[in-house]
Design goal:
7 strands; globular; AB_hydrolase_fold; 41% helix; alpha/beta; AB_hydrolase_sf; Rossmann fold; seven-stranded mixed beta sheet; 3-oxoadipate enol-lactonase activity; 3-oxoadipate enol-lactonase; hydrolase; 254 residues
């Protein structure tokens, strides 16, 4: 597993879990806007980035165990865990399995269950048959809101998406297809911030709010004019939400 640490080695640990089809560079825009005194930990999930690409399919339990192993190896306890999309599903699974590892939870653009098995199987078949480029345009149209799509950064993110090994992407699609956290997530009792993008068509705000409502006391923040990856589209605003949560301040819709 490819793991990277930034910030203060003795600071409060904040762990970031990436979306499907991305690597740890997903958070590059957010980290510079976070306060000092944080130990910032990122990794490439299996099949992505610089991590190994074992044969799929993968299970969500395996992805959760990967995160668990990384945190145990780094001696992390009581971290703030930030997960977007599939990273948010990993976050839910890890919080249920190892509550000692997570003190506070940030769930961004995710859900207790995402999509239907048939949809994920279509993606698996497409990338295994025709490669990542065959679905890139459709995926990026769901990733980003209208404002970001009008910028010149779409080509960069399309290129990064197409770098993902098809076997790794397909493996993680299978993990999402088989995951249902409605019952486990409803057992969680920890401070939680749920972040949604107003233009997210992959995990729409109502789905994100429904997931937040499973956790008593969870806060909900809506980032307007953002799609599925507000950490990329609006990194300064995303960092501001995260900073307020880290520092224990009140949250609000953006």
């Amino acid at each position: 597993m490819h793991v990277r640490e930034d910030g203060d080695p003795s600071g409060l640990p904040v762990v970031f879990a990436n979306s499907l089809g991305s690597d740890l560079r997903l958070w590059d825009g957010v980290l510079p806007h976070l306060p000092d005194g944080l130990r910032l930990i990122r990794w490439d999930k299996r099949g992505h980035g610089a991590s190994d690409v074992p044969p799929g399919p993968y299970s969500m339990g395996t992805l959760v165990s990967d995160a668990e192993t990384i945190l145990d190896d780094l001696g992390i306890k009581a971290c703030i865990f930030v997960g977007v999309s599939i990273g948010g599903m990993i976050a839910q699974g890890l919080a249920v399995k190892r509550p000692d590892l997570i003190d506070r939870l940030v769930l961004s653009n995710t859900a207790a269950r995402i999509g239907a098995r048939a949809m994920w199987q279509e993606r698996i078949d497409a990338v295994r048959t025709s490669g990542m480029a065959s679905i890139a345009d459709a995926v990026l149209a769901r990733w980003f809101g209208r404002d970001f799509q009008a910028t010149g950064d779409m080509a960069l993110w399309r290129g990064r998406f197409c770098e993902v090994p098809p076997e790794g992407y397909a493996g993680c699609c299978a993990a999402i297809a088989g995951a249902d956290f409605y019952t486990p997530t409803s057992s969680l009792r920890l401070p939680t911030l749920a972040i949604a993008g107003s233009e997210d068509t992959s995990t729409p705000p109502d789905l994100m709010r429904e997931t937040a409502d499973l956790i008593p006391g969870a806060e909900f923040a809506l980032m307007r004019r953002a799609g599925h990856l507000p950490c990329v589209e609006q990194p300064r605003e995303f960092a501001a939400l995260l900073t307020r949560f880290v520092q224990g301040g009140p949250d609000a819709e953006t």
